[in-house]
């Protein structure tokens, strides 16, 4: 289980340690967009990298694209976003606060209770007042204003292409990366000579003018998605089932397994089938993978069966044929599409929340991000035991530079060794390398160094002495997933003198 009960702990760690900052903070910030700091960008890049490697590079039936954010405005007419990509919005007539109509009863609400001479209470979401028994009818924020009737609000950001601000130049920032895969379907099919089933993947930014963004990076107005459009022949059957239904279930399983593989605990993940009335306008069936975030169970990603809706719509509005020629049946078909759509920011939030631990070590609190080594922003920290010894510092810098040719590795000498270890634990660095007197020797005493350094494992805090010349090979093994116990069995533990606290 994640050690986290509150999002505030994660927000504070993220700011303190350079993962995520509030955007434009010096101007008062905005709650709806966030900036990734030096460690956040590494973590985010690692998530995208392993997603791309596992779902694109490793598969023979996948290719990728990187399309532009600004697309032809007709794309959004054809896709249905102009007409349907709306949320119901209500306003408070008193304080002017805006809410998504379907979110109002998921918020704690302010109540001036008539049974207690109008005392003000904050009542948990969806519950009645414990004194007067009333349920919320007014604005949850101020507790005084009536709410307007719901109005539909389009979530797309409108902008103008070119120097003239006139209706003809109106376009939109893409609200999903998916549409580029549909409008490029034929380009990709022809240029890559693909056969069904195959998928097109893309990771990139999307924008939604959310009515109520919030909960840190969970719901923002600018975010990144990792999406796959997996095209199948609707006339095919796999294992006795229609191909689209078979592949939908396969992708649900594969995505679930992927999140578990990179560290999310099984008990914090679940599937949720969309009810008929909540299905998006394009979907035949959608299943969400939900994660138990600090705010409760919420959507981490969605896997939809979009049928042939998008290709047919784009063919209709563009006048271009978007079909596949089925050689066996000698006929043109419009493929069905299964769409695994994940949010990078939400994945990052889930990985951080799940990795967060607080432990007691020798009477002191140790905060630990038990991130999967492939996701960890820093793989190794090289630490000199004595920063006043030139030879120790020089050796540590050389080791950092050598290892940094392969991984993100840092050098730090700004505190005593115990504190340096804790700092690396808190940001999830799986291994620390300590250079000490025993490594370089003591010339004044005539003692030669052993050219070995101490490697410390983040999770077990165990240590081993490894020759500097073998560091590259040892980290290749460890960072490739070899268990610590297997590698450490080959090397001695350090003596107390060399190991540091
Ligand atoms: N093409 C389908 C599509 O975009 P979606 O369920 O709207 O489906 C997919 O979005 C994923 O993108 C979500 O599961 C979530 O992880 C992420 N996402 C969507 N809106 C977001 C927002 N406002 N802020 C952060 N992530 C968001």
The proportion of strand residues reads: 25-35%
> For the terminal residues, how far apart are their CA atoms?
29 Å
Helix amount:
25-40%
- Associated small molecules: glycyl-adenosine-5'-phosphate
Radius of gyration: 27 Å
Structural class: alpha+beta
Mean pLDDT: 95
Spatial ordering of strands, largest sheet:
3-11-12-20-17-16-15
Q: Can you tell me the residue ranges where pLDDT is under 50 for at least 5 consecutive residues?
A: 497-501
Q: Given the structure, what is the number of helices?
A: 15
Shape annotation? globular
Characterize the main sheet: 7 strands, mixed
- Number of E-type strands: 29
Helix and strand arrangement:
Layout: H1 7-16, E1 20-22, E2 34-36, H2 38-57, E3 62-64, H3 73-79, H4 81-84, E4 86-91, E5 98-100, E6 109-113, E7 119-123, E8 151-154, E9 158-160, E10 170-172, H5 178-183, H6 185-192, E11 198-207, E12 222-232, E13 237-238, E14 241-242, H7 243-261, E15 269-273, E16 285-293, E17 296-307, H8 309-318, E18 324-326, E19 331-333, E20 336-343, H9 344-355, E21 356-361, E22 364-369, E23 380-384, H10 390-403, E24 409-411, H11 417-427, E25 431-435, H12 437-440, E26 441-442, E27 447-448, E28 452-457, E29 463-467, H13 471-479, H14 484-488, H15 496-499
Parallel strand pairs: 3-11, 23-24, 23-25
Antiparallel strand pairs: 1-2, 4-5, 4-8, 6-7, 9-10, 11-12, 12-20, 13-14, 15-16, 16-17, 17-20, 18-19, 21-22, 25-28, 26-27, 28-29
Helix pairs in contact: 2-9, 3-8
This protein binds glycyl-adenosine-5'-phosphate.
Glycyl-adenosine-5'-phosphate binds next to β12, β17, β20 and α9.
């Amino acid at each position: 289980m994640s050690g986290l009960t509150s999002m505030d702990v994660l927000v504070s760690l993220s700011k303190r340690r350079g993962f995520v900052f509030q955007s434009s903070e010096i101007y008062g910030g905005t709650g709806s967009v966030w900036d990734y700091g030096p460690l956040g960008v590494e973590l985010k890049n690692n998530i995208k990298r392993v997603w791309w490697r596992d779902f694109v590079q490793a598969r023979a039936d996948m290719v990728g694209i990187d399309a532009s954010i600004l697309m032809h405005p007709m794309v959004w007419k054809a896709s249905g976003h102009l007409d349907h990509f709306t949320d119901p919005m209500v306003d408070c007539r008193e304080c002017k606060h805006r809410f998504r109509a379907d979110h109002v009863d998921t918020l704690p609400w302010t109540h001036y209770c008539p049974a207690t001479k109008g005392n003000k209470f904050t009542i948990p979401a969806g519950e009645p007042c414990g004194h007067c028994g009333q349920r919320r009818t007014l604005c949850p924020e101020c507790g005084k204003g009536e709410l307007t009737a719901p109005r539909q609000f389009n979530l797309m950001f409108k902008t103008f292409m070119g120097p003239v601000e006139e209706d003809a130049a109106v376009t939109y920032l893409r609200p999903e990366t998916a549409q580029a895969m549909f409008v490029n379907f034929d380009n990709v099919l022809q240029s890559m000579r693909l056969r069904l089933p195959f998928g097109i993947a893309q990771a990139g930014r999307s924008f939604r003018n959310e009515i109520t963004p919030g909960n840190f990076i969970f719901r923002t107005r600018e975010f990144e998605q990792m999406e796959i459009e997996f095209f199948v022949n609707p006339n095919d059957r796999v294992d006795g089932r229609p191909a689209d239904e078979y592949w939908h279930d396969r992708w649900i399983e594969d995505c679930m397994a992927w999140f578990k593989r990179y560290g999310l605990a099984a008990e914090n993940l679940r599937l949720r089938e969309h009810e008929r009335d909540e299905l998006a306008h394009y979907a035949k069936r959608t299943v969400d993978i939900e994660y138990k975030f600090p705010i409760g169970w919420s959507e981490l990603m969605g896997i939809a069966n979009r049928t042939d809706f998008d290709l047919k719509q784009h063919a209709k509005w563009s006048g271009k044929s978007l079909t596949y020629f089925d050689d066996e049946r000698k006929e043109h078909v419009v493929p069905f599409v299964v769409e695994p759509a994940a949010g990078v920011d939400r994945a990052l939030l889930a990985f951080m929340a799940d990795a967060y631990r607080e432990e007691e070590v020798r009477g002191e609190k140790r905060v630990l991000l038990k991130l999967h080594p492939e996701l960890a922003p820093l793989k190794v920290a090289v630490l000199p035991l004595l920063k006043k010894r030139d030879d120790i510092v020089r050796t540590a810098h050389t080791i950092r530079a050598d290892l940094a040719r392969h991984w993100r590795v840092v050098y730090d000498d700004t505190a005593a060794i115990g504190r340096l270890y804790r700092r690396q634990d808190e940001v999830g660095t799986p291994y620390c390398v300590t250079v000490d007197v025993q490594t370089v020797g003591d010339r004044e005493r005539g003692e030669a160094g052993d050219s070995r350094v101490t490697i410390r494992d983040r999770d077990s805090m165990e240590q081993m002495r490894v020759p500097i010349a073998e560091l590259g090979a040892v980290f290749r093994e460890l960072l490739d997933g070899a268990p610590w116990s297997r590698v450490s069995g080959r090397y001695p533990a350090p003596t107390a003198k060399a190991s540091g606290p």
